[in-house]
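User: Some background: our group keeps a shared notebook of sequences we're curious about, and every so often someone picks one and asks for a predicted structure to add to the entry. Today it's my turn. The entry only has the sequence so far, pasted here. Could you supply the structure so I can complete it?
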Amino acid sequence: MDTGSLRSHHCAPSLPSLPVLPVPSVPSVPSVSAPPSAPAASGTPARPVATPARPSAPPPAAAPGAKPADRDAQLKALVRDLEAGKTCGDRRAAISKLVELGDARAIQALRRATMRGGQGDQSNACLKSDADRAIKELASPR
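Assistant: Of course. Here's the predicted structure to add to the notebook entry:
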């Protein structure tokens, strides 16, 4: 039997050919299946595996001679800790680090923190005296 005759007697109608669309390139994701020192299955050495970034502790207060970019980054991180700290103790710790940093730009965030309401640990009533003291210290010329 001729295979050409089988195709012509097929029940399904032929579909029109579709245009071929370009496929965007996607960056490859490093494999985490084998440690970097283990050889790959093909016998070639494995490529190093990228390690995910780990969250770090809040930055320490800047030294007096710290670069402005470092101070800006530390100020932003500490203000974020003040605004998003889970407990009042976390937020109070951010206040003491803001005072150590000695940047008067933190005053606005401290004022906002004193107005934060809520119930229980969501309220900033527990840190009002610390924030007021920090505002006075940061507002005074050094």
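Suggested note for the entry: Residues 59 and 74 are 6 Å apart (CA to CA). Residues 52-60 have pLDDT under 50 and may be disordered.
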